[in-house]
Amino acid sequence: MTSANTRQNPAPEASPGQRPKPAPPNGAPVRATGAQALVRSLEAVGCEVVFGIPGGTILPTYDPLLDSTKVRHVLVRHEQAAGHAAAGYAQVTGSTGVCMATSGPGATNLVTALADAHMDSVPVVAITGQQSTGLIGTDAFQEADICGITLPVTKHNFLVTDPAEIPRTIAEAFYIASSGRPGPVLVDIPKDVQQLTMSFSWPPEQRLPGYRPVGKPHGKQVREAARLMSEAERPVLYVGGGVLKAEASAELARLAEHTGIPVVTTLMARGAFPDSHPLHLGMPGMHGTVPAVAAMQRSDLLIALGTRFDDRVTGQLSGFAPEAKVVHADIDPAEISKNRVADVPIVGDCKEVLAELLEAVDSASTERGRGDLSEWWEQLEDWRSRFPLGYDWPADGTLSPEYVIERIGQLAGPEAVYSAGVGQHQMWAAQFIEYQRPGSWLNSGGLGTMGYAVPAAMGAKAGAPDRQVWAIDGDGCFQMTNQELATCAIEGLPIKVAVINNGNLGMVRQWQNLFYAERYSQSDLGTHGHRIPDFSLLAEALGGVGMRCESAADVDSVIERAMEIDDRPVVIDFVVGKDAQVWPMVAAGTGNDEIMAARGIRPLFDDDEG
């Protein structure tokens, strides 16, 4: 795959004030500026929303964008928010999200959001302006080599130096972003290329000779996986975000119910399998449920689907699931055996893998009989009964953050969309809200980006205006991107924001409490005693409705009042205790056998130990 960066003889620049009108898709070629070709190409690929901010080098494109009746532009307050909003939009709709920025700082402000989308495999196309071609490499005003900067954090990027290449580049960018393992793609277009005229027609011929994502799995590998499944005594379906990306939740449910194999869903896969299903053991990992972590540790077969054996799941890799054989299915061959060697590697789309696996399991069962998992389920039910997920109320009588989040989930229900920032509130939102359907949980899983929740919720609301969208945020995260409430107010995107205000960088404080002898260095935010800022007043200043809740008796009523408001964003400042901690926990650098159900309480997994 090569970038469209070969200079050709440019077409003559359009006269001042001249606006050639491009032909509709599939029409006869007509003269158009590069900017007009860009807008028309976005329309042709089905883009409905662009999140962005105009600036000097992208300004030629913003002019024809004003005339588009198909593409809505959402004017954000910071480019990073544009990228997160595009990601939130993509995850809720299943389409590719689009963000736009000018050159230099506008483009570099997108980098964190692109890195975030790259880590979590979210299809995003970022379009940036660039200094005119004659100035590239001269350190001109607001020049930055954004292609070089984003090379490690994008699936691919393009520098377009010929306006005739714009339609093909946009078509390829959207195809690359959404196919195979999804991810972000950046298209950088110099200002003069946007202003030059060209012959526009659609569709363009795509030329991606080196890019051939594999969808269909190899039949022999699928049959071998089915054989291992039929022989296993302690199997676990280890489900990652790739199942959601493949829209394979229905196939997963059929396989699980057909085989009776327990399911764990990672932080990125919440909603891929219903939390209420009796086969579901919960979320594995550093703050996963004890049954999920224990099941993986004691399994003899892990069927890993669309997941990458992330360190937050495995803990110390050398001690992870020591007795388990591994079937690893993923659309990205680079992930297979990267961290844990796979006994049966399967490259393919999870939807197709699961469909073929179900057939192969039937055949294997006919030949060899079906394994008896009754003893395995006795052990799993024992762990479930001994180590249920729960929490204690703060001894000082302050409001429990877990209770707040639990009640939001119960009152807003499974049809709502929930986004979270990063930290304690993220883990509590993953633990105490029940996710019953795909596309209901958005979070920054791989990069762990503070400030993700509000713009991601904004993008989700733009993509699913009829669904209620809640941002579960911390007082630290919220202060990074709360300016987007103004965007939500002006653009008619009435999200709800629950600020879990514990006055601290909560997860940092928890680690300082556990591992740094309670030396709380620079983790007190001042949002409790000083009320700086006052979140309810801040919400009002940014065009929303502000509320505050400090007692358990008021939690339901304030949530219900927020749910009744649908014309403005709402912020609820939930003032909670500062010392609540996230449990269970596997400390960084330790193995999953060292999981603590609560402070100082380590579950004993083996029957002879229990």
From TrEMBL:
GO terms for cellular component: acetolactate synthase complex. Its EC number is 2.2.1.6. Residues 33-147 form the Thiamine pyrophosphate enzyme N-terminal TPP-binding domain. Residues 421-574 form the Thiamine pyrophosphate enzyme TPP-binding domain. It catalyses: 2 pyruvate + H(+) = (2S)-2-acetolactate + CO2. Pathway: Amino-acid biosynthesis; L-isoleucine biosynthesis; L-isoleucine from 2-oxobutanoate: step 1/4; Amino-acid biosynthesis; L-valine biosynthesis; L-valine from pyruvate: step 1/4. SUPFAM superfamilies: DHS-like NAD/FAD-binding domain (SSF52467), Thiamin diphosphate-binding fold (THDP-binding) (SSF52518). InterPro entries: Acetolactate_synth_lsu (IPR012846), AHAS_TPP (IPR039368), DHS-like_NAD/FAD-binding_dom (IPR029035), THDP-binding (IPR029061), Thiamin_PyroP_enz_cen_dom (IPR012000), Thiamin_PyroP_enz_TPP-bd_dom (IPR012001), TPP-bd_CS (IPR000399), TPP_enz (IPR045229). CDD domains: TPP_AHAS, TPP_PYR_POX_like. PROSITE patterns: TPP_ENZYMES (PS00187). GO terms for molecular function: acetolactate synthase activity; flavin adenine dinucleotide binding; magnesium ion binding; thiamine pyrophosphate binding. It comes from the Bacteria. Residues 1-31 are annotated as: Disordered. It is an enzyme of class 2 (transferase). Binds 1 thiamine pyrophosphate per subunit. Keywords: Amino-acid biosynthesis, Branched-chain amino acid biosynthesis, FAD, Flavoprotein, Magnesium, Metal-binding, Thiamine pyrophosphate, Transferase. Residues 222-357 form the Thiamine pyrophosphate enzyme central domain. Signal peptide: none annotated. Its cofactor is thiamine diphosphate; Mg(2+). Pfam families: TPP_enzyme_C (PF02775), TPP_enzyme_M (PF00205), TPP_enzyme_N (PF02776). GO terms for biological process: isoleucine biosynthetic process; L-valine biosynthetic process. Belongs to the TPP enzyme family. This is Acetolactate synthase. It comes from Actinopolyspora biskrensis.
